[in-house]
Amino acid sequence: MDELPAERLVRQITERHGRELDAHRSEINEQLADFRAHGRLPSAARRLPNISARSFEAEDIELDLAIGVREVAQFGSINPDNPTLVASVAIGAARTPADGSRRVRVYLSAGEEEAWARAALGPLWADYAYRVFAVRNLVDVYPRFFLVLVDDLGRPTLAPDDFDWVRAGVGGTTAYPQKLAPMNDAALRSRLDRDGDVLPAADVTCGLSSVSRSTWGLQVLSTLADELALATQRSHRTYVEEGCQLDGEALTVRYRWHNRRIDANQHFGIRVPLESFRADLVQRFGSDHPTRAGRLIERVMNEQGGWEDGEIIDGTSWTELPPQT
C-alpha cells in the first residue's frame, strides 16, 4: 500500500529528529512516574528545552517545538480515581528574510504542524491527540497547540466534553478542539465514528446547543476548512475550493477533487441546511457539536460517489446533507 503524504512526513521527521524526540518523551514519562509516586508533579517541574529545526516544506522557515506535561484535574470532568494529566506540543515558526532583516513569525502548513505533533507524541498518544484552535490565532501569530490527555501510566484517553482548553494551556479567551484522525488504531477510529470525539460529562446538557444558528454555522465552517486543508495530506487527491457561502440558512460549498494518480478533475457541490442538519445530529448523536458536524461534512465530501450520482447542475454534481427522503 502506498505511503500517504502525512505518513511520509511523520517518518521523515522521526528519521531526522527521532533521538531528540525520544529524549523528550522519556523525560515526560519520568515526570509521570513522579506523579504516580507522589500524587502530583514536582513543584519545580523540569522544563524541557525546545527543539529547533528547519521546516521540511520551506527552507527559510525555522520552527521551535516545546513539549510539556501538566495536571488538569480542575479543567473538566476528570475521574478522580483515574489521575489524568495533559501532554502538550506547542509549535512556533519564523521566516528569515533573504535580506537578513528581523525574523517574521509565521505558521507552518496545517499538514506539517500535524506531522511534527504526531512525531513528537509518538503513534499511541498521537491517535488520541487534539489540535486546539485558539481565537487569538486568528488575529496574530501565536504557537499552535496539540494536546493529549494521559493517565499516570501514560495511557491516553479522550477528553471530556466540558474540558477547558484555554485553561489547559492554549491561552487566549476562546478555544476549541479538533480531533486528529487516528493513523494506527482502527478500533479508535470506529469508536470516534460511532460516539464522537469527546467523552460525555455528567454535568453537560445534551441536545441542541444554545448558540445561534449563524454562530454554530461559523463554528462548523471553521472545522470544515481545517479538515479540508488536511485532506490532501491524508489521500492521493487534492481538494480545490471553487466557492463557499454561509448565509445563515445553509452552508454551500462548490469544489473539485484533483486525483494526482489519474490527472482527473471532478466538480462537486454540497448544500447543508443548518436547521435540519443540527436536528439530524441531535437525533443521531445526542448533541450538535460543531466539530463533529464539520468532520461529517468533510467525510461526505471526501467519500462522495461517482460524479453522475448527484444532481447535475451546470456541470457540477450536487448533494445535500442530511439526505432528502
Mean pLDDT metric: 82
Please write the string of helix (H) and strand (E) elements: HEEEEHHEEEHEHHEEEHHEE
Q: Look at the helices and sheets and give the structural class.
A: alpha+beta
Tell me, briefly, the overall form: globular
- Uncertain segments are none
Number of domains: 2
> What is the number of helices?
8
- Major beta sheet, specifics? 8 strands, antiparallel
Q: C-alpha Rg, in Å? A: 21 Å
Percent range for helical residues? 25-40%
User: How many angstroms does the end-to-end distance come to?
Assistant: 38 Å
Beta-strand content estimate: 25-35%
Q: Find the count of extended strands (DSSP E, 2+ residues).
A: 13
Topology:
Layout: H1 5-38, E1 51-54, E2 61-71, E3 84-95, E4 104-106, H2 110-121, H3 123-127, E5 130-134, E6 144-151, E7 156-157, H4 166-170, E8 175-179, H5 186-195, H6 213-234, E9 237-246, E10 250-259, E11 264-273, H7 274-285, H8 290-302, E12 311-313, E13 316-320
Give a brief description:
This protein is α+β, with helices and mostly antiparallel strands and 325 residues long. The chain has 2 domains: 5-195, no CATH class; 213-320, Double Stranded RNA Binding Domain, CATH 3.30.160. It has 8 helices and 13 strands.
